[in-house]
Amino acid sequence: MYTMSNSQDPGSIPSYREEFKHSVDLFERSLQAYKQSNMDNQKTKFQEVMGEASHIMSETSPQFMNSGDLQDVAKLQTDFREFLKNPSSDVMKRLQQDINNLKNV
Is residue 9 part of a domain? Predict the structure, then answer.
């Protein structure tokens, strides 16, 4: 499992932000690939990648975000858990909206 260092070095803030943005991008690409795949084993792998990207987002976001932006990360986490239970098109639309909100952070 991925973990961030606990460094409080002010120079690390851009790194946290970069890792966060990379994770948002990876989550989005995996969600798009999931939508296009017809193979269950591929879909499972895409879910695993989304799970890791989601974990990195939740690890890095407190290092540079304000409380309002952290609520957007929490919403993505909630919608992702729902997606794992029920990957309906409605839930996927909500996840895409969550991603779009996080891209603007």
Answer: no
Residue 91 lies in a domain: yes
pLDDT for the residue 63? 93
Cα 48 to Cα 57: distance, rounded to the nearest angstrom: 14
Rounded distance between C-alpha atoms, residue 90 and residue 95, angstroms:
9
Question: For residues 56 and 76, what is the distance between their CA atoms, to the nearest angstrom?
Answer: 12
Quote the pTM value.
0.86
Asked if residue 101 lies in contact with residue 71, where contact means CB atoms within 8 angstroms, the answer is no
Which among 86, 82, 60 has a CA at the least distance from the CA of 73? 60
Residue 87, domain CATH? 1.20.120
| Residue 18 in tokens | 């970069």
Domain range for residue 95? 14-103
pLDDT-derived band at 1, boundaries 50, 70, 90 = very low
